[in-house]
Protein: ABC transporter ATP-binding protein
Amino acid sequence: MAGHLDIRDLHVRFGKATILQGVSLSVQDKPLSVVGRNGMGKTTMCLALMGMVPATGSARLDGQEVLGLGTGRVARQGIALVPQGRRMFPSLSVHEHLLLVAQRGSPPWTIERVYDTFPRLAERRKNGGNQLSGGEQQMLAISRALLMNPRLVIMDEPSEGLAPVIVDHLIDVLRTIAAEGMGLLLIEQNLRVATSVADQVSVMVTGKIAATVGAAELASDRDMQNRYLGVSHGH
Ligand SMILES: Nc1ncnc2c1ncn2[C@@H]1O[C@H](COP(=O)(O)OP(=O)(O)OP(=O)(O)O)[C@@H](O)[C@H]1O
Ligand SMILES: [Mg+2]
Structure:
């Protein structure tokens, strides 16, 4: 199996502040979700893995060190990031966004499959990035990552701001991706998404992994949710 990621003792410092204080995580054959409250360091971890902020420690993709490589080389090694908050080019159409990253005809993800999976994007293929709803932008951001056919995809809060029916579709897509063998590291604050997609959920608290628990256990244990996330979720 490909797309295994082993993160060991990842540290990130901004000036005097240590934002990541020795994160260790492992994504093997199944997806892993990472949850945690605002400002705990989830996005910083994603950026560090992609070589977008300086970090120390180790991150091995299928045994090969990727930490310290430039972002382009990390991508070529097979890691794609769906960044938090989408970021489209307002002047490019949906189709142009997809063409920018599509490696022509290379399976499993092609532009045809993207349009098949997200019919809304097909309908809006000529629309500019600034004319899309939040949900459509998120589908486009996910599509761009999938079209790179990475060994591992990192998604930073993909369900943020999405309507519930779109979240249901997202869960289906993420399960399909994982079942096809793509590695998946899923950052989420939505517990339903985190626990529906992955069997294991790691909890980040102030730049460290405080615990890794079974998804079913976390989904049913309000005390644990309050302890780690500080909020009580409706379902
Ligand atoms: N460029 C930066 N310079 C200094 N501090 C930063 C920088 N970027 C992030 N931080 C700080 O790092 C900490 C972690 O932020 P990060 O964005 O990684 O959290 P997060 O877990 O992704 O939060 P959220 O759930 O809100 O997305 C925060 O305290 C934030 O203020
Ligand atoms: Mg974040």
